[in-house]
Amino acid sequence: MLPTLRDQPAAPRHQGLLAASAGHRRTGMSTWARAALDRSEKLLTLCAPIDTDIASRAGSALTALTPEELHTAARPAELLQRARPDRDHGLGILVWADAVISATSRDTHEEIETTLARLCRDHRVSVLCVYDRGGERRRKRDGAGSEHLDLAVGRHLDGLQEQRLALHRTGDSLYVDGEIDMSNLDVFATALRALTDTPSPTVHIDMGGVTFLAAAGVRTLIRDTAPYRDRGADVEIYATPHITRILQLIDIHRLPRLHLICRGVSTNTI
């Protein structure tokens, strides 16, 4: 049986946050920065404002790159190539994706994300990339977390946190925690589509941490795994008894190549 999201290692790596509002963004950035300082990491920020208390606490251990510096740099990703933790400290990198994209471009930000993933893999580096979801006070322009959702979801396999939903991916397995409703169907759908890009003959969707599943979420699950199942691959869904009953009511378990496995019930594939 697959482990749940809460059973996964908690080591911070290349993580993402989909901020629902400016307040949510500020709180997420501040909480993460404090945790990085608690781990004795130095801080590097990319277009990400932090509060004065954190700046004061970090002191000379804080390096801030502004939108203007990124805009004028020939290759912004090259600035990160020189970012290395020293022998005694790790390095925490805090990124505000909306400001980076505005100062440069989506392609440049994607290059930065690739560089960040490499740094996390090869060095003592932890990263939080914050994407605004948009829509606060009915703004005309969506945030990067809506406009570039594929980038936010696809680049943060170590963990992506939305206001009500948390996602984590390892290989051919997607772990889902929280509530799936109309506010985050696009996040869930994008994660499912990214998962079905894997060449594995079977993908696993662990919904053991899901506490609420709207009917539209079930339809999304059916629709966005269909291309994969149509290619002859199997989809295994792990769920609690409560979520299993919801899925059974819509007869999802009767679809070809889709297997529903109820947690807490002895290896019962329906």
UniProtKB/TrEMBL annotation:
<dbReference type="InterPro" id="IPR036513">
    <property type="entry name" value="STAS_dom_sf"/>
</dbReference>
<dbReference type="InterPro" id="IPR058548">
    <property type="entry name" value="MlaB-like_STAS"/>
</dbReference>
<dbReference type="Pfam" id="PF13466">
    <property type="entry name" value="STAS_2"/>
</dbReference>
<feature type="domain" description="STAS">
    <location>
        <begin position="174"/>
        <end position="270"/>
    </location>
</feature>
<protein>
    <submittedName>
        <fullName>STAS domain-containing protein</fullName>
    </submittedName>
</protein>
<dbReference type="InterPro" id="IPR002645">
    <property type="entry name" value="STAS_dom"/>
</dbReference>
<feature type="region of interest" description="Disordered">
    <location>
        <begin position="1"/>
        <end position="23"/>
    </location>
</feature>
